[in-house]
Structure prediction request, 107 residues.
Amino acid sequence: MTRIEPRQCSSEAFADRVTELLTSDISLENAFQRLILDELSARIGTAGFRVSSITHRPYREIYAVQHPIGNLTLHLDYNDKGFVTRIAPQEYSTEDLVTELRQAVSI
Prediction:
């Protein structure tokens, strides 16, 4: 048996991500949901969007998304093979918000 040495993480980004997940309304049930969230967050994060909560449905993830100019709900559908089939903004506060989101996600 070997001794396990604890390591200190110096990455502020990692610490911020862990803190965000622990204090948010985001719970993930499997690796596929993590993959979708990470990809979506990477695309929309650069435009100032942030996922604040997720509702899981069969073959659909419903994201509550925040932005400095407003909030929206984003429906992301996928099939049984793991391909995203539709990304649709719903319940948004302004049309400008939808335009910015479409540009960030490239839809």
In short: The mean pLDDT is 85. Helices lie at 12-23, 31-45, 95-105. Strands lie at 50-57, 60-67, 70-78, 84-90. The chain has one domain: 30-105.
